[in-house]
Each structure stands twice: as structure tokens, then as C-alpha cells.
Amino acid sequence: MSPYEVVRKAIEFDAPERLPVRFDELGISDIHFLGWNQFRPYESSYSETADDEWGCVWTRTSVKNMGQVKGHPLAEIGAIDHYRWPDPDNPRFYAGMDRMLPGSNDKYVLTGIFMLLFERIHSLRGFENTMVDLLERPKLFNRIADNVEAFGIGVIKNLADRFGNTIHGFTFTDDWGTERGLLIHPEMWRRVFKPRYKSIFSAIHECGWHVWMHSCGKINDIMDDLIDIGVDVINLQQPQVLGIEETGRKFRGRISFETLCDIQKTLPRGNEDDIRLEARQLIDCWAAPTGGFILSDYGDGEAIGVAAEKKRLMLEVFQKMDPWKTRHT
Question: Cα–Cα distance between 189 and 171 in angstroms, integer?
Fold first, then answer.
């Protein structure tokens, strides 16, 4: 079974022959990422500040991290009237992508957008301004959100035109949770954001691709909604915040989990026994008999204080507990 088939079968609950793995830092992955020319702060070599394609200004400190947006081009309300929105049809976004395909071999090919909707909106406007806009300036909010949504769909269509079924999945980031719950009331999320995500996910599925979403924090309140509108794979890196047993009871077998031991607790602070215990709990609670689990690394080990040796230990622990390999041997 090829790496592509292993990943596909896990996502579609079609009985993979082993646990799919995505550990690029260790040089072990069933997935090949095909990136377009989008600014990625976690991959960029800027030292202090840098502008992305939206005009957002990223700032990095001497402490190891990807930085954060400190300059918001739409911070002032009037700025939107003369702001130049990025054009998803601009060929420079896709120049050189062909050179990234060799090496994918028979792997699952994933592409995507860093900061798809909510994160992009508050990066443009500022977080506090965005929260106020949702309540007091809905017309302004919708004007910004309409353009961000259109850009995402435009990128999807451009990637599909260029690569079609060479791509298998589309991933994106939008952090929605604190460690206690959703950043906004779930009903507001359903009214304002759910239709926009549904539109974007429909565009992805029309390409024949899976939808992969990363979101930090306790997003339990919208998991049913995400499943309803078509998220195929959910990347969750804080399983203890979500509640491993609770999440498994409600969502196991309904969505595929891309996950690992908790990146804020178990992985940086725990010992081998702690990692082994949580790995067993995740496998037992989140992996269904026919799939639904992808072991995925947190790429920046230095930022969370986790050395490669500890990641390798976690990988080995999970592989020994592989819920599907034993059935094929």
C-alpha cells in the first residue's frame, strides 16, 4: 500500500494497513506538501520584521518563534477605501511550483493556505478591532471577510487549474479556541463564519480534495458544525484541553484526527511513561477500527522546548501501538 493510499484510507475510514505519519523534521512522512508562494513566517528567514502579501507586518523577537503580526494595514477604518487586495490570479503566487512536485513520489500531496479566514481578517484589522466590528460594524466586517473569502476560493481554483488531481488535500490554519472555550459565542460563529467556511470547503471538495483544518484551543462547541460542513481532517495539538475521552466519545469515527501528544503539557514536560500513557489513550479514544487517525509532528520543536530525540521517542511509541498494522501481519 502506497503512502498516498495509507493516508487516504485513514481519512476515509477505509482500513489503512498502518498508521499514517507526518514527521518532516525527522525525515519521515507519508505526505508531501506543495506550497505556493505565500509568506510563511515559520519557514521565513526574516530577522526582525517582514511584510506578507497582504501588507501585514510580522515582527520576530530574539526568542525562537515564528513572530506575530504587529502591523495591521486596515487598522484604521478609512484604510479599506484605498487598500489594494491581493489578486489570487497573480501568476507570481504559483511560479516555480512545478519544481516542488518531484520528490512527492507516491505520497499524499497536500497544499493549503496559512491563515485562511478568521486569522487573516484579524491580521488585517487587528484582533480587538475585529471583535468590535463583529458587534458594532458588521458592514465593515463583511466587506473585509468577503474579500478574504474570495481570495481563498481564487487560490483554490488556481491550484486546481494547475495541478488538478495531483493534489489530494487542502490544509489551512484558523485558531478558534482559548483553553476554556471558543473565542466568540458559538451561535455567532454559526451565523457569521459557518456559511463562509461552507463555501470554501465546497470549492475544495469540488476539486476532489480533502479538507484539513488546524485550530488550537478548546473548539468542542463547533466540532459538530465543522463535520457538518465538510472538514475531513482536524489537526488538534492540545488534546488535553479538548478532553481526550470526551472528544473520542463524541467524534470518533466521524472525522479524522491529525494529532500527537499534547504540545503544551505532555510533550515538553512529560517523561517516557507520560508519553506512552497519552499515546495509548489517544489511540484507544480517537482511532476508529477502520481509520481516522494520523500521527503528526509539531514542526517547530525548539519553540515548544522539545528536542528531536523526544519526538523520535513519541514516534516510536505510537508506531508500536499502531492500531491497524497488527491486523495486517
Answer: 20
